[in-house]
Specification:
By secondary structure, the protein is α+β, with helices and mostly antiparallel strands. The protein has eight helices and 15 strands. Helix content is about 30%, strand content about 20%. Bound molecules: 6-O-phosphono-beta-D-fructofuranose. 6-O-phosphono-beta-D-fructofuranose binds near residues 123, 251 and 286. Homotetramer.
Length: about 350
């Protein structure tokens, strides 16, 4: 039977029958996917939906916990995910890039045993220019005996994730998911309204000739990163002995999706601009879910010094340096950091 006839619902039911996912987690993933469909519709309307631009302006501008101006679609996506998941019955609490602290599930709804973290609309600087953006999510177990989770209950390393994924709103809307047994890709059939399996068991090629980094930060990088990218740029005339290509969408979802599809290395290293914060990208709802998806597809993910999934979070919005993608290339980048000590 061809992949095109397997809906997300059917895929998840089959995973449940194979004992790879329990019914609560299956339904939780379905709720997240349903919310992503709603966000996809809002993103797809663009200017016609009246949702482009920032919330407020000038001194009335709305700034989120990250110190970034909130886009109307950031806020809308956050509301859609909050509302869909709060009543679902499978969660004990939620945390989002857009909210300072975690939220327990309101008393009026049943509570479950999972914690959900999400970046409702990653790459939101791309919204107004019609470039791909996406939702990233991570699912953890609520610690035993906790019914009213607080931030500390979310502070689990990435290895504790029971599911992770992203939905990219691009030329097509695509959901990429892992429940810990491979990374699978589903494309939204807009006519039918359901996600359809389009790539089972994605594999990232081990070797690559493509890197993704914001080169404008070069002068702010630490010496090992300078040395690593310097050698990539020397191409076939340098120690790497091959020419590299560069791509940077500035939406992590889009850059990671390209890497899951055809290989490459994505990096947002430590630089002088973000050193006091620990990096640019957020561990719990950006780096961790992406790292699990990448590892489950045969790739690797590191801070440059440590496997990303083993970083112990110290805060919901903790930031980390990120290197992820084709295994050999991530190992090469880590090698430059190890050499520097
Ligand atoms: O959430 C952070 C993010 O928007 C990522 O999606 C993206 O990879 C990065 O920031 C872009 O950073 P910059 O604006 O420095 O290119």
């Amino acid at each position: 039977m061809s992949n095109t006839s397997i809906s997300l619902t059917r895929f998840l039911i089959e995973e449940q029958r194979a004992d790879r996912i329990n019914p609560d987690l299956r339904l939780l993933v379905e709720v997240v996917a349903r919310a992503c469909k709603t966000i996809s519709i809002a993103v797809g309307k663009g200017a016609l939906g009246g949702v482009l631009g920032d919330v407020g302006s000038g001194s009335d501008a709305s700034i989120n916990v990250q110190g970034e101006a909130q886009k109307k679609l950031d806020v809308l996506s956050n509301e859609i995910l909050m509302e869909a998941n709060a009543w679902g019955g499978h969660l004990a609490g939620l945390a989002s890039e857009e909210m300072d602290t975690s939220h327990p599930i309101p008393d009026k709804y049943p509570r479950g045993n999972y914690l959900l973290l999400f970046d409702p609309l990653d790459g939101s600087s791309n919204i107004d220019v019609n470039v791909s953006v996406g939702t990233i999510f991570s699912v953890l177990r609520c610690p035993d005996g906790v019914t009213n989770p607080v931030d500390a209950d979310f502070l689990q390393p990435g290895t504790a994730q029971v599911a992770a994924g992203y939905c990219i709103y691009g030329p097509s809307t695509t959901l990429v998911l892992t429940v810990g047994h491979g990374t699978h890709c589903f494309t939204l059939d807009r006519e039918v309204g359901s996600f359809v399996l389009t790539a089972r068991g994605m594999r990232i090629p081990e070797e690559t000739r493509e890197f993704a980094v914001n080169m404008s930060n070069q002068r702010h990088w630490e010496p090992p990163m300078q040395a690593y990218v310097g050698d990539l740029l020397l191409g076939s005339e340098g120690p790497r002995g091959k020419d590299f290509n560069m791509r940077w969408v500035a939406s992590m979802v889009a850059d990671v999706h390209r890497i899951l599809t055809r290989g490459g290395i994505f990096s947002y290293p430590l630089d002088r601009k973000s050193a006091d914060k620990g990096g640019r990208l957020r561990l719990m709802y950006e780096a961790n879910p992406m790292s699990l998806l990448v590892e489950q597809a045969g790739g690797a993910a590191s801070t440059g010094h440590q496997r990303l999934l083993e970083v112990q979070p110290t805060g919901l919005h903790m930031r980390v340096p990120v290197f992820l993608g084709s295994k050999t290339e991530v190992e090469a980048a880590v090698g430059y950091h190890a050499k520097a000590g």
